[in-house]
Design a protein that fits this description.
Elements: E1 3-9, H1 13-24, H2 26-33, E2 36-43, E3 60-61, H3 65-68, E4 73-78, H4 86-95, E5 99-102, H5 105-122, E6 126-127, H6 138-145, E7 151-157, H7 160-172, H8 176-186, H9 194-197, H10 200-214, E8 216-217, E9 224-225, H11 233-242, E10 244-255, E11 258-269, E12 281-288, E13 293-299, H12 303-322, E14 340-341, E15 351-361, H13 366-376, E16 381-386, E17 396-403, E18 406-407, H14 408-419, E19 429-433
Parallel strand pairs: 1-2, 1-4, 2-3, 4-5, 5-6, 8-14, 9-11, 11-19
Antiparallel strand pairs: 7-10, 7-12, 10-11, 12-13, 15-17, 15-18, 15-19, 16-17
Helix pairs in contact: 1-12, 4-5, 5-10, 7-8, 13-14
Length: 446
C-alpha cells in the first residue's frame, strides 16, 4: 500500500488529538484514502509533558528543521499557533514544495494574503478547515458546496467562550465576572481572556470567512470588533422582556458595492436559528441567492473536534497527491491572480436597530430630554421601558429604548451628547439588534 509521509509541528492539545485520531482510526483512514498516512516526525519545544497518547520516542524532535528538510515528508501540519515562527515554518515548507495543514486562525487572518499567494506560486495546497468553527465544515462549504452561489450574508457564533458566558448569564442569572471566572476554572477561557471576550478571536475567523465568501483580500484591522465585557445581567433581563437573546455575532452582509463586516454583541429574536445555539457551541447561518438559507452547527473547539477538521484536510490533500495533482480547489475558492482587495462599508454608515440602556436621574423631564437629543440626531424611538423607583448605586434608574433603523454615526453622536447631560449617570449601554421583522431593507443591497 502507498504511504504518505507527514510531519507535525506542535504537539499540544490539538496536536495530541491529531496523533490519537491517526492511530485510532488508521484502518478507517486507509480504507477511505487507499493509502497509509505515516506520521514520520513530531516537533515541539516541550517533549517532557505527558500526552494521552503512545508514540515512539524516535519520532520526537525539538528541531522543526528535521521536518522541513526531510524530502520524504510531503505534508506539514502546523499546530503551534501564534505568528512566528509559525509563519516562517509554513512559508519554508511551501518553498520546499510541501503542502500544509493548519488550524492557525490568527496567522491566516493577519498574514493569509502572503501565505495564500505563496501556496499558489509554489503549486502546493494549504488546508485550514480547523481555523474556523472547529469541526464545522464552514471552509469546505464556502469553497466548494456553495461555489455556485452569491453569498448575501453570513451570521456566525464563532467563539465558544463568549457564547458559554452569555448562555450562563441568561440561563442562571449570574453576572459576567463570576461566569468568566467559572469558564476559566473549567478551561473554556484562557487566563488572559482578552482574545475571546473582546471579539478578537471572532474577528480572526470573520476575516477568513469574508475572504472565502467574496473571493477578496481582507485587511484584518479593518473589521469592526466589540466584545461582551460591558454586558450586564440588566441587559440580559431587558433583552428577554423585549423578546431577544444576546449573542456575540460575527456579521457579514453584502451591500451593493461594499460589505459590512462587524463583530459585536447582538440582540436576536427568540425564534432566530442562532438564538438557540448555547454553551460553547458554534454555528453559522449563511444566506445565498440560490441555496437560500444554510445552517451549520457543531463544536467550535476542543481536542478531538478540531483534530477531526485537521485530519479532514490531511485526507483531502493526500487524495489529490495520489492522483498526481495539486490545487484542484484554490485556497480561497478564487484564483489568486484575480483576487482584489475587499471594500468594507464604514461602520459609521451601518444602518440597523439599536437598544439603549440609560442610567438616568429619577426626576421629571428626563425622558423628554433624552428623546429630544435622539430626535435631533435623526433617531426614531420604537419603544421605551422605564422601570420604577428602584435606584442603583449612583442613585439613578434605568431607561431602556429600542430604535427604528438608524445610522451608526448618528447614534454615536447622540450618545456622546446624552452622556454629557447632568441627568445621565455613566456611559450609556448600546447593543445592536438584528431582527428581520424590524428592517425595511434586510439584505436587499440598499
Amino acid at each position: 500500500m502507498k504511504e504518505i509521509q507527514v510531519g507535525l509541528i506542535g504537539f499540544g492539545t490539538v496536536g495530541t488529538g491529531v496523533v490519537k485520531l491517526l492511530q485510532n482510526n488508521a484502518r478507517l483512514l486507509e480504507k477511505r484514502l487507499g493509502a497509509r498516512l505515516v506520521l514520520k516526525k513530531i516537533a515541539d519545544i516541550d517533549l517532557t509533558t505527558p500526552r494521552d497518547v503512545q508514540i515512539e520516542k524516535d519520532i520526537l524532535t525539538k528541531d522543526a528543521g528535521e521536518i522541513l528538510n526531510d524530502p520524504e515528508i510531503s505534508i506539514v501540519i502546523e499546530l503551534m499557533g501564534g505568528y512566528e515562527p509559525a509563519r516562517s515554518f509554513i512559508l519554508e515548507a511551501m518553498h520546499k514544495k510541501k503542502s500544509v495543514v493548519t488550524a492557525n486562525k490568527a496567522l491566516l487572518a493577519v498574514h493569509g494574503n502572503e501565505i495564500f499567494k505563496v501556496a499558489e506560486e509554489e503549486e502546493v495546497d494549504i488546508g485550514f478547515e480547523a481555523s474556523v468553527g472547529g469541526t464545522i465544515p464552514i471552509i469546505k462549504t464556502l469553497k466548494e458546496g456553495l461555489v455556485a452561489n452569491e453569498v448575501k450574508a453570513v451570521f456566525g457564533i464563532t467563539n465558544g467562550t463568549s457564547n458559554y458566558i452569555l448562555t450562563k448569564m441568561a440561563d442562571e442569572g449570574e453576572n459576567f465576572d463570576d461566569v468568566l471566572k467559572e469558564a476559566q476554572d473549567l478551561g473554556f477561557a484562557e487566563a488572559d481572556p482578552k482574545f475571546d471576550i473582546e471579539g478578537i478571536d471572532s474577528a480572526h475567523k470573520l476575516a477568513i470567512t469574508l475572504s472565502l465568501s467574496y473571493g477578496k483580500r481582507v485587511n484584518f484591522d479593518d473589521i469592526y470588533r466589540e466584545g461582551i465585557s460591558k454586558i450586564s445581567q440588566d441587559d440580559i433581563e431587558f433583552a428577554k422582556e423585549l423578546g431577544y437573546k444576546i449573542k456575540l455575532l460575527a456579521i457579514a452582509i453584502q451591500r451593493e458595492d461594499s460589505i459590512e463586516a462587524r463583530i459585536h454583541p447582538t440582540m436576536i429574536p427568540f425564534d432566530h436559528l442562532l438564538a438557540n445555539v448555547n454553551g460553547n457551541f458554534n454555528a453559522f447561518h449563511i444566506i445565498c441567492d440560490a441555496a437560500d438559507s444554510v445552517f451549520l452547527y457543531g463544536q467550535g473547539s476542543g481536542m478531538m473536534p478540531t483534530a477531526s477538521a485537521v485530519v479532514s484536510d490531511l485526507v483531502d490533500i493526500s487524495r489529490d497527491m495520489l492522483k498526481g495533482i495539486a490545487r484542484r480547489v484554490p485556497s480561497r475558492s478564487s484564483r489568486e491572480d484575480i483576487i482584489e482587495d475587499i471594500k468594507l462599508k464604514s461602520m459609521d454608515d451601518i444602518v440597523t436597530n439599536y437598544y439603549f440602556r440609560f442610567s438616568a436621574a429619577d426626576r421629571p423631564g428626563v425622558l423628554s430630554k433624552i428623546s429630544g437629543v435622539l430626535g435631533e440626531n435623526n433617531i426614531s424611538i420604537a419603544s421605551v421601558i422605564q422601570k420604577g423607583r428602584k435606584h442603583n448605586d449612583a442613585g439613578a434608574v434605568p431607561i431602556v429604548m429600542m430604535t427604528h433603523e438608524s445610522k451608526e454615526k448618528d447614534v454615536r453622536s447622540a450618545l456622546e451628547e446624552i452622556d454629557r447631560l447632568d441627568i445621565v449617570r455613566g456611559e450609556t449601554i448600546l447593543i445592536r439588534i438584528e431582527d428581520d421583522n424590524l428592517k425595511s431593507d434586510f439584505i436587499q443591497g440598499t
